[in-house]
Here is the input.
Amino acid sequence: MLENSEIKVFKRIKSFPFEEDDEFAHGLSIILGHPDILASKAEIERDDDITLQAKCFYFSRKENITPPVNVRRYQAWLQAGSVPALQAASLIDQQQIRNVTIAGHANAPLVETEPAYPSSFAHIVELITAGQPIPGIQQIPDTILIGQATPSTRSKRRKPWEQQSDNDAGK
Here is the structure.
Protein backbone atom coordinates (compact mmCIF):
# COMPACT_ATOMS: atom_id res chain seq x y z
CA MET A 1 0.00 0.00 0.00
CA LEU A 2 1.09 3.53 -0.66
CA GLU A 3 1.83 5.61 2.38
CA ASN A 4 0.71 9.20 2.82
CA SER A 5 4.34 10.32 2.71
CA GLU A 6 4.80 8.61 -0.66
CA ILE A 7 1.67 10.26 -2.04
CA LYS A 8 2.95 13.64 -0.82
CA VAL A 9 6.24 13.04 -2.65
CA PHE A 10 4.33 12.11 -5.82
CA LYS A 11 2.32 15.34 -5.58
CA ARG A 12 5.54 17.33 -5.10
CA ILE A 13 7.08 15.68 -8.18
CA LYS A 14 3.97 16.43 -10.23
CA SER A 15 4.04 20.10 -9.21
CA PHE A 16 7.84 20.51 -9.50
CA PRO A 17 8.76 23.07 -12.22
CA PHE A 18 10.96 20.76 -14.32
CA GLU A 19 10.54 22.95 -17.43
CA GLU A 20 12.14 25.90 -15.59
CA ASP A 21 15.10 23.87 -14.28
CA ASP A 22 18.02 24.20 -16.73
CA GLU A 23 20.01 21.46 -14.96
CA PHE A 24 17.18 18.96 -15.49
CA ALA A 25 16.66 20.12 -19.09
CA HIS A 26 20.37 19.57 -19.83
CA GLY A 27 20.37 16.11 -18.22
CA LEU A 28 17.25 15.10 -20.13
CA SER A 29 18.74 16.36 -23.38
CA ILE A 30 21.77 14.11 -22.81
CA ILE A 31 19.48 11.13 -22.18
CA LEU A 32 17.45 11.92 -25.30
CA GLY A 33 20.60 12.09 -27.42
CA HIS A 34 21.00 15.80 -28.16
CA PRO A 35 23.37 17.14 -25.47
CA ASP A 36 24.10 20.40 -27.30
CA ILE A 37 20.45 21.55 -27.26
CA LEU A 38 18.44 21.77 -24.03
CA ALA A 39 15.33 19.61 -23.85
CA SER A 40 12.24 21.44 -25.05
CA LYS A 41 9.18 22.08 -22.91
CA ALA A 42 7.30 19.44 -24.91
CA GLU A 43 10.03 16.86 -24.21
CA ILE A 44 10.04 17.70 -20.50
CA GLU A 45 6.24 17.41 -20.23
CA ARG A 46 6.11 13.95 -21.86
CA ASP A 47 4.92 11.08 -19.68
CA ASP A 48 6.92 8.28 -21.32
CA ASP A 49 9.11 5.91 -19.30
CA ILE A 50 12.42 7.67 -19.95
CA THR A 51 11.16 11.12 -18.98
CA LEU A 52 9.41 9.82 -15.85
CA GLN A 53 12.55 7.92 -14.81
CA ALA A 54 14.61 11.07 -15.31
CA LYS A 55 12.14 13.15 -13.30
CA CYS A 56 12.05 10.66 -10.41
CA PHE A 57 15.84 10.30 -10.39
CA TYR A 58 16.44 14.06 -10.54
CA PHE A 59 13.82 14.84 -7.90
CA SER A 60 15.16 12.12 -5.58
CA ARG A 61 18.71 13.49 -5.89
CA LYS A 62 17.67 17.14 -5.57
CA GLU A 63 15.49 16.54 -2.51
CA ASN A 64 17.79 13.86 -0.97
CA ILE A 65 15.02 11.25 -0.88
CA THR A 66 16.23 7.86 0.27
CA PRO A 67 15.34 5.32 -1.07
CA PRO A 68 14.78 6.94 -4.46
CA VAL A 69 11.25 7.42 -5.77
CA ASN A 70 9.83 4.21 -7.24
CA VAL A 71 9.09 5.04 -10.89
CA ARG A 72 6.54 2.26 -11.38
CA ARG A 73 4.54 3.33 -8.37
CA TYR A 74 4.70 6.97 -9.45
CA GLN A 75 3.58 6.00 -12.95
CA ALA A 76 0.68 3.98 -11.52
CA TRP A 77 -0.25 6.92 -9.32
CA LEU A 78 -0.27 9.25 -12.34
CA GLN A 79 -2.36 6.88 -14.46
CA ALA A 80 -4.79 5.72 -11.80
CA GLY A 81 -5.39 8.63 -9.50
CA SER A 82 -7.41 6.34 -7.23
CA VAL A 83 -6.44 4.53 -4.04
CA PRO A 84 -7.60 0.98 -5.08
CA ALA A 85 -5.50 1.09 -8.24
CA LEU A 86 -2.52 2.28 -6.22
CA GLN A 87 -2.95 -0.60 -3.80
CA ALA A 88 -2.98 -3.02 -6.74
CA ALA A 89 0.20 -1.40 -8.11
CA SER A 90 1.78 -1.80 -4.69
CA LEU A 91 0.95 -5.52 -4.67
CA ILE A 92 2.41 -5.93 -8.17
CA ASP A 93 5.63 -4.19 -7.05
CA GLN A 94 5.90 -6.53 -4.05
CA GLN A 95 5.53 -9.54 -6.36
CA GLN A 96 8.20 -8.18 -8.69
CA ILE A 97 10.56 -7.63 -5.78
CA ARG A 98 10.24 -11.25 -4.76
CA ASN A 99 10.52 -12.44 -8.40
CA VAL A 100 10.37 -16.00 -7.13
CA THR A 101 7.74 -18.68 -7.65
CA ILE A 102 7.14 -21.92 -5.88
CA ALA A 103 7.30 -24.87 -8.25
CA GLY A 104 5.06 -27.82 -7.38
CA HIS A 105 4.17 -27.66 -3.69
CA ALA A 106 5.16 -25.89 -0.48
CA ASN A 107 8.34 -27.95 0.13
CA ALA A 108 9.66 -27.55 -3.42
CA PRO A 109 12.80 -25.47 -3.92
CA LEU A 110 12.35 -21.88 -5.06
CA VAL A 111 12.93 -21.26 -8.77
CA GLU A 112 13.74 -17.80 -10.14
CA THR A 113 11.69 -16.67 -13.09
CA GLU A 114 13.46 -15.44 -16.22
CA PRO A 115 13.83 -11.68 -16.43
CA ALA A 116 11.74 -9.91 -19.05
CA TYR A 117 13.93 -8.60 -21.85
CA PRO A 118 12.93 -6.30 -24.69
CA SER A 119 11.72 -8.31 -27.67
CA SER A 120 14.76 -7.53 -29.82
CA PHE A 121 17.16 -8.58 -27.07
CA ALA A 122 15.15 -11.73 -26.36
CA HIS A 123 15.27 -12.54 -30.09
CA ILE A 124 19.08 -12.17 -30.14
CA VAL A 125 19.40 -14.36 -27.04
CA GLU A 126 17.20 -16.97 -28.72
CA LEU A 127 19.39 -16.92 -31.86
CA ILE A 128 22.58 -17.31 -29.82
CA THR A 129 21.23 -20.18 -27.74
CA ALA A 130 20.01 -21.92 -30.90
CA GLY A 131 23.42 -21.47 -32.54
CA GLN A 132 21.98 -19.50 -35.44
CA PRO A 133 23.77 -16.54 -37.04
CA ILE A 134 22.76 -13.06 -35.89
CA PRO A 135 21.70 -10.76 -38.72
CA GLY A 136 24.06 -7.84 -39.29
CA ILE A 137 27.03 -9.50 -37.58
CA GLN A 138 29.94 -10.46 -39.84
CA GLN A 139 31.10 -14.04 -39.43
CA ILE A 140 34.90 -14.29 -39.15
CA PRO A 141 36.31 -17.81 -39.54
CA ASP A 142 38.50 -19.20 -36.77
CA THR A 143 41.40 -20.18 -39.03
CA ILE A 144 45.12 -19.43 -39.05
CA LEU A 145 46.86 -18.98 -42.37
CA ILE A 146 49.50 -21.74 -42.24
CA GLY A 147 52.53 -21.50 -44.51
CA GLN A 148 52.02 -17.85 -45.40
CA ALA A 149 54.14 -16.37 -42.60
CA THR A 150 57.32 -14.49 -43.55
CA PRO A 151 60.45 -14.20 -41.41
CA SER A 152 61.06 -10.89 -39.68
CA THR A 153 63.42 -8.49 -41.47
CA ARG A 154 63.96 -6.10 -38.58
CA SER A 155 66.57 -6.63 -35.89
CA LYS A 156 65.51 -7.60 -32.40
CA ARG A 157 64.75 -4.59 -30.22
CA ARG A 158 67.31 -4.14 -27.49
CA LYS A 159 66.38 -3.63 -23.88
CA PRO A 160 67.34 -0.34 -22.17
CA TRP A 161 70.05 -1.97 -20.05
CA GLU A 162 71.54 -3.65 -23.09
CA GLN A 163 71.83 -0.33 -24.92
CA GLN A 164 73.38 1.37 -21.88
CA SER A 165 75.99 -1.38 -21.43
CA ASP A 166 77.12 -0.87 -25.08
CA ASN A 167 77.53 2.87 -24.41
CA ASP A 168 79.56 2.17 -21.28
CA ALA A 169 81.79 -0.28 -23.22
CA GLY A 170 82.68 2.46 -25.76
CA LYS A 171 84.05 4.81 -23.07
Summary: The first strand starts at residue 100 and ends at 102. The helical segments are 4-15, 22-32, 41-45, 49-62, 71-80, 83-98, 119-130, 160-170. DSSP finds eight helices and two strands in the chain. Residues 147 and 153 are 17 Å apart (CA to CA).
